[in-house]
User: Fold these one by one.
Assistant:
Number 1:
Amino acid sequence: MDQLLYTIIALLAASVGSVSLSGSLLLLSNKWLGKVSSYLLYLAGGTLLGSAMLGLIPEAAESLPLTEALAWVLGGILFFFLLEKVILWRMCHDENCERQVHAAAPMIIIGDAVHNAIDGVVIAASFLTSTELGIFVTLSVLLHEIPQELGDFGILIKSGYPRKKALMYNLLSGSSALVAGVAAYFLLDTLEAFIPYALTIAAASFMYVAMADLIPEMHKETKPKESLIQLLLILAGVALIAMAVSGHSHAGHVH
Ligand SMILES: [Zn+2]
């Protein structure tokens, strides 16, 4: 029962919490907003990769043969490639459409709602595995959601949405994490055999977000100083997860 409570708190932090945090960051001056948002993104690159490879995959491999777990991760990466492709197809009607530039605001909201729902399932599956895994997975979600939502605010406001409305839409798309997460919690609690598979898909989602979304974004920045900051914050993110993982490696598991 405690796990359900933790899961709901984590889902609220990841959805309402990250939207309100990013909403309050909007009060910063543009210069600071850009800095904070970039640094969170770099840190998220590290925590996502660390959570996937130091936390989620090893957990899954405790219940599945490693080769099978990795095959599911591979399948998951291909699935997320296709999912993103479909979302891009739905957003673009001309040939040289770049995401974010010509993307219609409603598709941004729907695309995010799908992504947030997946994050919600990831959080539920991690808390069903152990509280510690749940906590650092939630941290990884929070860290990448804040810069993501700041970006969405920017797009919505540029497309003419008033701030209040942009905030409402972000909350709406964030709430999909709560709904999907609670549903996944009950489903996975009854069908425990699915949990290790859910963890492999979660790992694939984290790796995909880090390597296909965040890292290409980081490479737009080529100045040596900023590149060094990127490297250091990625390493800090990995170190954060590594410490959390080594701290709990022998803690009791719920299931
Ligand atoms: Zn996310």
Number 2:
Amino acid sequence: MPTYSRLPKSANFSKIYRFYDGINSLLTLGFDKSWREKASQQLTGSTVLDLGSGTGAAEKQLIGYEVTALDPDERMLSLNNFSNKILGSAEALPFDDKSFDNIYCAFVWRNVSDTDKAFKEIKRVLKDDGNFVLLDMTRPLNMFTKRLHKLGTFITLHLIGIVTFSFKQYRFLYTSLDKLEAPESFLKESGFNSYTLERMGIFGFVYLSVLKKS
Ligand SMILES: C[S@@+](CC[C@H](N)C(=O)[O-])C[C@H]1O[C@@H](n2cnc3c(N)ncnc32)[C@H](O)[C@@H]1O
């Protein structure tokens, strides 16, 4: 597996990599699979870059595609069953221009240190008629449900952090939910020509976007 030196500081899943899939299902109340399913239905062509592939949670949804799994965290990748695995980050993609029909990116975006750089890199390695399928958690738009969501995630994530002796990591997961503006705002600055955006889940705390260069 090739190693790249400029990996982002935010890639801090190493300590919790063994529990990651279970915790993710718990936090999303098991809905993560159906959201991944919906996201994978937006794919086109045959090649997919699974950006921030982690432990390869999208394996089932990406069956039939030629997948390249990329992640900056070697331990997450050690549990990943895709055959083509690359250690790297979204901000410096080690691929030629127009290499992929799709970039699939699930539950990663709020961890990316420099999203402007990452948008540029994704646009560069995506084919002209390709799709950038972006799925992640955010905060609800409504002020009241946003507060409720903040309280719920504060309690749950800090508790899990204490129980698993990984307080710092789960604190990071909590704060990452507030790192970016709402997708309704930041997608306008993505540099892509067009995109769709749909909110899902309780209070709309998950979003799915398909961005196109054309
Ligand atoms: C919450 S996990 C999601 C993993 C997987 N995509 C899934 O759906 O379960 C976030 C992943 O993003 C990776 N990550 C963090 N910063 C990244 C970056 N700058 N570029 C690419 N991946 C990154 C982490 O190492 C971690 O494996």
Number 3:
Amino acid sequence: MLLRRLLCLLAATIATTLSAQDLPGLKVTFTSAGKTDVRSDRLLALYVPAGQAPSPFLAAGPFIAKWEGDLQSPLRGTFKLSAESSGKFKLSLNGQPLLDGPGIKTGQLNKGANRIVAEIASADKGDTFVRLSWASKDFPLEPIPPTLLTHPADKELDAAMQRREGRLLFAQMNCAACHADAALVPAKGTGMPEHGQIAPLLSELGTKFKAPFLADWIHDPHSIRPHSLMPKIFAGAGAEQKAADLAAMLTQGATPKAGAVDLKLAPQGGELFANLGCIACHQRPDAEGKDAQDRVPMGHIADKWHPAALMEYLQDPAKHYPATRMPHFRLEEEEASQLAAYLLVNSRQVKRKALAGDAARGAALIVSGGCLNCHAGMPATTQPTLATVLKAGDKGCLSADDKARATAPDFALTSAQRASLKAFLATDLASLKQDTPAEFAERQIKNLNCVACHSRDATLSTWTKVDGEAKKLRDALPPKEHVEGEPVHDAPIPPLTWLGEKLRHDWMSKFIAGQIEYKPRPWLIGQMPAFAHYADGLALGLNHQHGLPQKEAAEPAGDAEKIANGEKLIGDAGGFNCITCHAVGDTEATAVFEAPAINFAQSAERLRKGYYHRWVLAPTRIDPDTKMPKYADPEGMTQLTDPYEGKGPAQFEAIREYIRTVK
Ligand code: HEC
Ligand code: HEC
Ligand code: HEC
Ligand code: HEC
Ligand code: HEC
């Protein structure tokens, strides 16, 4: 299965023979009130609700969006191109006008690059949207896949992406927590969601962490977690003593959380570490050296955590830190103790200096060091104001070396990050006061590392890449006989590529938040962990990326005749026998060993209508490996001549009507 996937991807890459300068996605230029901004988008699709700006760098108001790039066609031939849009959409193909307004037109595509230029003017009233699809004699209408859209390298685009990177760093590193200016930054809880997020609550630390480790963390967080958002605050002589004083203050008078972890469970924990996908985001605790996948290190866990507190953390990582990047797995207590045992047994103990600290000195440092500006949202008082910082250039926190930095915090910025921050600081900062859902989703997919577990476009998941490591952890346990019906570790996880087109906002947002009680794919050992803090915005942004609104149009109650036809069509008597693989409410699938599939009762609340039809008409266009049979030919005709004269779309719509009635 895995090998086939790899080969498919490889074939797709070779078929399109991209030139070295081609980058994924199309360049989009937005123009509004005489100002422009650019970015690259994966798809030719856009959704901008009335009254909102198409980009955080432009004010809301009438705008024009223009897409430029290449459609990399795998074949030469005749294709149909179709635009659904709010109006005023134009597209030219290889220099020739093709579409003018919504509709469908036939055009010729060359093998390889075909130049696309398209434009939409925002709607006078209501939301602005567009979705571009194509079809050929071999496949029905589908959005043009992101893997086939490219643009050449572009300086203007690089500069715009750099500003965006700087904007995110400014927000996440909480620059305005110390360098404040009420006129320049948004009020709490408004504007860019990442701005002003509170760092972990510094409470009960002594019940959780060991003081010598805590001192080392405060002294130099990046030496422990390279991508930590927390800066090194103290430099020079006495820095280690200050950190020890703070550690003493933060752990003063606390007793470690009581309770032991049964360390004999470590091998079971190792298997979970592989099967739940921890291994996709984290290095193994016994790993040494630099990690090719750049995962979060775990070697220090035994040095840091009191065992019972670690178990508690694993069961609710967001408890003291809602914005954490560590997701919530809804672990059973037994699983948490197995995982804790695995991490504790395999960590590498380091000799720590353990200077004696003075809690009273620590209490003064926690204020003067600016700790509480990030950790408790305390207003900035003594630091240079933001207006000063904007004029300062390469100084203070933006200095390249320790000497020039002097007393300013060290965020371990790379030179690219410093350049991004400077590019952002050169703007008017107004972009902090608003946001664009599609961009929020794109940022958080990277920040939260969704591609650890999900493949996306041409990117394989990290989990797939570290399969060999995961196998070793499974092999540490004696082999188990597979029992029919029990979940397996090697079943495919849905790629992220089409999820924004596939799922309804309300379901997706609840699912990402961990609020859906059932598991759509009970045959997987792994599960989707929850990212509650980010769920709603992620789901909305994903829908917008595909040119879709938050809510689908309300549908009237189904037509009785269609519903009856639909029920017949999924069955084995004169139907397609979908029920061999699909359970329907409480009725189990009749031959589930064929290929397990999702219960139709769940599909009804999950799926968007457009995606449902696209999938059922041509499932392998979406997933080349799927075991779901194709029932319709490229004209949409099926083997069943009755009802609807064998017309697949009408038959599948009847099935959908029926599915909507299943509880
Ligand atoms: C914990 C508080 C804190 C945070 C957060 C912080 N800074 Fe600073 N910053 C300082 C201190 C302290 C100085 C040094 C002030 C001095 O030299 O008197 C400084 C100095 C600077 C200076 C030089 C100002 C001058 O006039 O010399 C710049 C530029 C700067 N910071 C940028 C940033 C940026 C960009 C961020 C976010 C990535 C940031 N700072 C986050 C505390 C902070
Ligand atoms: C610029 C904001 C910022 C400043 C200033 C800052 N921190 Fe942090 N701190 C964070 C963030 C964000 C985290 C979360 C961990 C991460 O991003 O790796 C964190 C994590 C921590 C943790 C680990 C908490 C846990 O529950 O895992 C401790 C302890 C801590 N900080 C103490 C301090 C102390 C003490 C100071 C002052 C010397 C300080 N921090 C200054 C942002 C900050
Ligand atoms: C999607 C990526 C992701 C996955 C999957 C993931 N983690 Fe994490 N985890 C993180 C990040 C990032 C942090 C750093 C903390 C933060 O940003 O708040 C973290 C922090 C932790 C910590 C605290 C580390 C410390 O230094 O104290 C532990 C323990 C942990 N994870 C265990 C696990 C286990 C066990 C699993 C599997 C059940 C898992 N993680 C799955 C991303 C992930
Ligand atoms: C630790 C691995 C892991 C990480 C990290 C992860 N996912 Fe998932 N995700 C899964 C698994 C496994 C499923 C399938 C669950 C099922 O059907 O029971 C899934 C399913 C989903 C689904 C539902 C798809 C469908 O067709 O049912 C969505 C939406 C989703 N993930 C979005 C995300 C987003 C967004 C992120 C990043 C914020 C993310 N996932 C990160 C493992 C992960
Ligand atoms: C041989 C087994 C099999 C048969 C028969 C089958 N399917 Fe499927 N179906 C699948 C598989 C496998 C999936 C993908 C599951 C996944 O996303 O992991 C699927 C997915 C679906 C989905 C998407 C469900 C969701 O909620 O994500 C729909 C809708 C669907 N099938 C409809 C049908 C219809 C209608 C029929 C009969 C005309 C049918 N299937 C027959 C195996 C089958």
Number 4:
Amino acid sequence: MGTPQAPRTAVIVGGSVAGLFAGNMLHRAGWDVAIAERVPDDLASRGAGIARHVEMEPIMAAAGVREAGPLGIQVDGRIAVDRHGAELGRFEFPQYLTSWSYVYNPLKAAFPAERYHGGQELVAIGRDGDRPVARFADGLEIAADLIVGADGFRSRVRQLLAPTVVPRYAGYVAWRGLVPETALPAAFRAGGFGQYCFCFPPGGQFIGYPVAGADDSVAPGARRYNFLWYRHVPAERLADLLTDASGHVHDYSIPPPLIRPDLVEGLRRDAARDLPKPLAEAVALAQHPMLQPIYDVESERIAFDGVALIGDAAFVARPHAGIGVLKAGEDAEALARSLARGGSVADALARFEAERLPEGKAAVALGRRLGAFIERGHDSPQSDPALGLTTEFILRVSARPPSHSPDLLVPA
Ligand SMILES: Cc1cc2nc3c(=O)[nH]c(=O)nc-3n(C[C@H](O)[C@H](O)[C@H](O)COP(=O)(O)OP(=O)(O)OC[C@H]3O[C@@H](n4cnc5c(N)ncnc54)[C@H](O)[C@@H]3O)c2cc1C
């Protein structure tokens, strides 16, 4: 019998969902894993509600998470309404709506705390022979068999290895808000609150649905109403939305407390004009709406010499398909599976890239198609019939993985 081999080593850059999926899977496969996360403390919730896809269950299990509690709030399907609340269409599709922390918290709990290093910012990647070396802001250097870039849409790892791939502004923003169930008018609580609702105000799309409460409770009375209002904003006007009261223009996104009050007042005024009354009331009741400019990130390579990109670092699809978290999990699963086949890290990364590059591109293409009418500032999804964005198509395809709808990438 030979001497046992030392475990292979991985440094994972980014300790959000993609990093935790990969960290848990590689740790369970016997790798010596360290996660380095720039933020020192627990990550704040990334906003609000996300769709929980059935494909998520085996991936959570592979990451070592055993689901115990409820998966979120179940809705029966989707409904579209016009400006006056009259029904435009309906699609039966039972689905759980959940929150980002429902995924993040158990993944974090499953990962060994002593291997998770908060407050570690990667600044460079060097080489030590044939191994990549992660260099951190505090001077720490770690050589490893594998570095995983799971550092989000403005990825430093991607910037270092593929500097020409940058987030591209999609021509619109999402205003997001959350309202405690108990703050909503009684009539809405008894009816519309429980629906996954779509509406198409001029130049945009509004969706609203119930999500867990701030403490992750899904008990009636403790839940919240989550809305997303996608609005066309030409690139030359985006800087104004990202300018705070002191005149500072923020890059890419702006922290919610710094959003100028005049913009929030304008949002509420427009809601009263363009949305059915209950939805406009929800917008008015949201205490601190968030503003999220929408970007596409499309990589041409996700495997480099000993380095892989996963999650939003690799591809960012517009949120219409609601697959960012699932895609992060699938990327991590494909990477761990390929490495488990044995052989060299280089061969494993080549297989991983061959499998996940087309998936990432398909997700970006789907998001682009679903958002094309907002990007162009059209009054309605049907303004340009060539886009094929019928109400039926939007209700059927939104917030579902592309694999559910074989026709969806072919413009009608
Ligand atoms: C409006 C909107 C709605 C969305 N809705 C949905 C939905 O319904 N369903 C869904 O699945 N997804 C949704 N998403 C997408 C989802 O939030 C992301 O896809 C997901 O969070 C990506 O995870 P990630 O781990 O790849 O990146 P992130 O969550 O961005 O994490 C990257 C991490 O890397 C860290 N980091 C960055 N740079 C460094 C560095 N140099 N060194 C160390 N650490 C670093 C960051 O601090 C961060 O913690 C939505 C997104 C938006 C904007």
